[in-house]
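Need C-alpha cells for this chain, all 153 residues.
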Amino acid sequence: MQQSQILRSLCLLAVFSSMTAVVLGICDSCQTNNVACLNETHYRMCSANVAPNQILKCGEGKVCTEYTAICLDENAVTPACPADGANGSCETCDGTNLFVCTSRTTFQMCDGTTLTDQVTYCKDNKVCSISSGKYCVDSCEITGSVECDRAAP
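Here are the C-alpha cells for all 153 residues:
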C-alpha cells in the first residue's frame, strides 16, 4: 500500500515537473528537440556536429517551440522563448553606455539617454556583444545569455 502511494507521488511529481518546463521556456537553452530557441522566431541547433554560430529562422507566421516540429503556427502554440521573456529585452540608453545592442545582430550609439538613428550591423554569423568590448562576436564566445535577443531593432 505504502509503495503505491510513493509511486503515485513520484508520477505526479514527474508530470508537474514536465509541465513547469513547458510553461517557463528558457531562451538560448538546448531543449529535448535538440534546438535552442533564441527568441520567438530564431533558433540554433544543439549538436556537436553542427557549427554553433548558425542562426536559423522559422518561416513566416511560425514560432520556435520545444516540440519535435521546431517551428509551428504562431496562433497554435506559445513560443518557447517569448518576446517578453528575460532574454527578449535589450538594454536601453541610460546615460552610462555609449553603445547598446538593439537586436541579436545590430547595435546603435547612445546620445545620453537617446538612441541615435544609425544602425550598425554585425558581420554574418556574428552576434552583438557590447560587454565583450568587440561589439560583435562569434556566438560560441557568448557566456550566458545574449545581450539582446530581438530579431530586428
